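Re: that chain you flagged

S.,

Sorry for the slow reply, it's been a week of failed gels. I finally had a moment to sit down with the sequence you sent. For the record, here it is as I used it:
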Amino acid sequence: MKQEEKEKIAVFRFGVIFPLLEERHLAWGDKEKILSELSEKQWEIPGSSRTFLSRATILNWVKRYRDGGERVEALFPRDRNDCGRRRSFSDETAARLLRLREEHPDYTVKKIVDHVKKEGILMGSEELKNSTVYRFFKEHKKQQLSKQEDLRKFEVELANDLWQSDAMHGPKVRHKGKLVKTYLFAIIDDKSRLITGSRCYLNESTESFLDCLWEALLRRGLPRILYTDNGSSFRSHRLQIGCASLQISLRYAKPYRPVGKGKIERFNRTVRTQFLPDLPQELTLDELNTRWNEYVNDIYHQRVHGSTGQTPLNRFLDDVHLLRGAPEKLPDYFRLSQERTVAKDRTIRLEGRIFEAPVGLAGKRVILRYEQLDRVEIYFQNISYGFIQEVNRQVNSRTGRLQPTQATPAVHSGSLFTGGER
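Prediction finished late last night. Pasting the structure tokens below so you have them in one place:
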């Protein structure tokens, strides 16, 4: 399984168990209620056609996460070592069981199991038990029951409990002799209505949102939950793995139904009616952002909010002593990840460039983590071996080759998302 696939699965698992991680000392009844809700919920599970999770699976993920030092790497799928043992039935078998159940509702579970066995579609050591199939049907039925959504206004208890984010189309600016559209990314704190991060950009990209988010995290601390739109700029794997590494639960609004983003949508309307109409016709991007910062800091943050009865800044500062600060080297948590095999001459190709790996890693399968190609860090078996340089062929032609010995790690332990110094 590729590294990015493992990371996507780990991010999904972190999102599932997050409600159980928020409070370490949940009362038994509260914990059981959360577990029941999670096991009854329908999920889109990466790499699987199944749509439900068992209570035991969820508790196992919680244990693995805590035993692994509360690092997202602890939730990576483990390599299979169960050859020769029985496994759950395949997706093909599951689909056939459901089809028989639909076509013959009067069949007993035993009769359905016998029918599947006679068809000869079971694979390898796959074996169906009546009790297993009964539980499978029961769980599947739970997921098919329609539930009415409970829509109501809400507000979280503390600042940084929940941030809502969105991007809106901004005014055009003069850029390289042309009028170019801008995009305003903004992040609002649910409780205080403080704008934790915001800026206008020339493109609606993941890089633009990450720049906005990093500013917010450094200035205002880490939120527990980040709630965003479903746009492509928010669906980046870099954003997902970065949030999970920082213990931020990244959640998305349902497509075409932005329920839960009411506060950022309301703020966008305020921007359209109170900020945009007063702008001059032609501005540069820097001039636009200067005016925007003045509006947010000097007007919006200082004005009493109609819903809270306080200014956003004062309401946020009430909880400032409870907030989590952002770690150093914040962008490192959001780096891209690629798997590569080091060639016999210790070279690695990445995005059309050739880099040189440390001595001792020739022939090894490694992970490259980077934000820009001038800062590529190499990992082998989740241990950092420092930053690698692009090959200088002229220098190599005058330098003797080192004998392949064991490589020296730059960091002997720690998170996959921190590493050696350059």
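What I noticed first: Residues 3-21 form the longest helix (19 residues).

Talk soon,
D.
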